Structure formats: structure tokens, C-alpha cells
């Protein structure tokens, strides 16, 4: 039987992470727990046993927290500490502002997950009661126990990529929601249109044909155009969806669906008008 006690890669990574956190939260530093908000900020200065050394509540924006950090540093030094480590929740963009203000003063900053604060609040007195001063103490206590993390610091190019990625994610979410809404409306009022292609929203021909069909006040008016004029209109709409040559099978299927009565008739007129608006929004979103 082997007596080896080699550490796993997970053990080593965890030990390295805890070692880095201990460097940020040494015993010679007091901990400043700050509950960030829009205008009213609550802060406490504690030792590593969560004893509150000083408390302050100020009505300022995040960019005006520099004076609060200076006050906290002075309070910590008066209590015998060499410096302070700032702890906060990663609240929106405000923690980035606080991080910059702390870095300008040579102070370290760590973040505490909001879920941990929520659980600690519940364990504190078995209630869900929330107050900013209490949360500031809980944030400092969690940081003292190394139940926190070092936030990511980015370079300017990487920060730009992150913002562009967030924008792309937002557009993807919006486009997906528009497709789901369009599918839902068509299933109610004109389900035959969805059967015209095996993958309707991935087919440029189907999208162009739907765009053409929804360009008139009712499907009967589109049907009266005739198959040839309908095809010509679809060809003109194809560039909107990134293609030039329509697939005749899909065009014919959509044209035949124009005369299909299946669907909730009382809803059809309003639903198709709404579908036209959603389709236009989807085209605009895809073009961004």
C-alpha cells in the first residue's frame, strides 16, 4: 500500500490562490468593508476577527470615495495597522471605480461574491434582514476568512474586447428573442409558413419570402400578385438576408402557404402585422 501524499493539481492551485489572497490580506492590514450603492455608501474598518474599529456612512457617488478610503487608512493606522485592504461586492461598474481609487493610493482590493454575503446575512441572525452597515461588516468578515477573490485587472485592449463581447452577447440575446417571438406569432396565426422550410430562420430564401408576404396588409393581396411577381419581389428582398439566388422550392412553398387557412383567424390580421414589425427589428439587429 502506497504512503504517498502527493498534492493534486487542484490542491496546488487552491494553495496558490489562498497564498495570493493572504498576500493581499496580511495580518498587518485592517480590512475596509464597503457596501457599494448609487449614492449612499456604508463602510467599516475591522480587524481580522471582525471587530469593528470604525464605521462611517457617506452620501457620495462611487467616484467620490477617495476621501472615505483616506479616512479608513487613517483609522487603521490609529489602531496600529500598517495599511488596509479594501473589500467589496462586484456591484455593476462601481467596484472598478473603487479599484482604481484604491490602486491610486497603493491599497489592495478583493471582491466577495454577493451570494456569499446573502448566505452570511442569513446565518448571522437567521433572518433575511438587509442593511448596508450590516452588509459592510459581513463583507469584511468574509474577506478576513479569505472567502473572496482577487478581481481581474485588464489592459485597455482587453477591456475593449470585453465591452465588444458584452455588446455582441446583448445583440445575440435580442436576435434570439425576436426569432422566438416571430415563431410564436406565426404558429398561432399562420403555421403553414413555418412548414415551408425545414430550417426557416436559417434560410435566406424563406426569410425573404416571409418579408415579401408580410409587406402587404393581408395574405390574399399577396396571393393576387401571382407566382411570378411574388418571385421577383423575393429576389429583391434576398440581399437583406445576405443572399442573391432564392431556392424555388421554398419560394413555391411559401406562396402556396398564402392560401392555407390554418391558424386562429380572429388573430391573423393583428398577428401578421406584429410579425412584420418583429421581422423588421430582427433584420436591423442582424445588420448591427
UniProtKB/TrEMBL annotation:
Pfam families, per database record: DEDD_Tnp_IS110
GO biological process: DNA transposition
InterPro entries, alphabetized: Transp_IS110-like_N, Transpos_IS110
Highest taxon of source: Bacteria
Domain called Transposase IS110-like N-terminal: residue spans: 32-191
GO molecular function, a single term: DNA binding
Name the record gives this protein: Transposase
Amino acid at each position: 500500500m502506497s504512503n504517498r501524499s502527493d498534492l493534486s493539481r487542484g490542491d496546488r492551485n487552491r494553495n496558490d490562490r489562498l497564498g495570493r489572497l493572504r498576500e493581499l490580506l496580511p495580518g498587518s492590514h485592517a480590512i475596509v468593508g464597503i457596501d457599494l450603492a448609487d449614492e449612499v455608501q456604508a463602510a467599516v474598518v475591522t480587524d481580522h476577527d471582525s471587530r469593528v474599529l470604525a464605521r462611517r456612512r457617506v452620501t457620495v457617488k462611487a467616484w467620490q470615495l477617495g476621501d472615505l478610503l483616506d479616512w479608513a487608512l487613517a483609522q487603521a493606522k490609529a489602531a496600529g495597522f500598517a495599511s488596509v485592504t479594501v473589500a467589496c461586492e462586484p456591484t455593476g461598474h462601481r467596484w472598478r471605480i473603487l479599484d482604481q481609487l484604491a490602486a491610486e493610493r497603493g491599497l489592495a482590493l478583493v471582491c466577495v461574491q454577493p451570494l456569499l454575503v446573502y448566505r452570511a446575512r442569513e446565518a448571522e441572525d437567521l433572518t433575511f434582514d438587509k442593511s448596508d452597515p450590516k452588509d459592510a461588516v459581513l463583507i469584511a468578515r468574509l474577506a478576513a476568512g479569505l472567502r473572496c477573490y482577487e478581481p481581474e485587472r485588464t489592459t485597455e485592449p482587453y477591456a475593449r474586447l470585453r465591452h465588444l463581447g458584452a455588446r455582441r452577447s446583448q445583440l445575440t440575446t435580442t436576435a434570439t428573442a425576436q426569432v422566438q417571438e416571430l415563431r410564436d406569432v406565426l404558429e398561432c396565426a399562420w403555421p403553414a409558413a413555418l412548414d415551408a422550410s425545414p430550417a426557416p430562420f436559417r434560410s435566406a430564401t424563406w426569410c425573404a419570402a416571409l418579408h415579401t408576404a408580410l409587406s402587404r396588409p393581408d395574405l390574399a393581396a399577396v396571393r393576387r400578385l401571382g407566382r411570378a411577381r411574388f418571385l421577383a419581389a423575393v429576389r429583391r428582398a434576398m440581399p437583406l438576408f445576405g443572399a442573391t439566388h432564392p431556392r424555388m422550392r421554398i419560394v413555391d412553398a411559401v406562396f402556396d402557404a398564402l392560401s392555407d387557412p390554418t391558424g386562429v383567424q380572429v388573430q391573423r390580421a393583428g398577428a401578421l402585422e406584429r410579425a412584420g414589425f418583429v421581422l423588421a427589428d430582427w433584420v436591423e439587429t442582424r445588420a448591427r
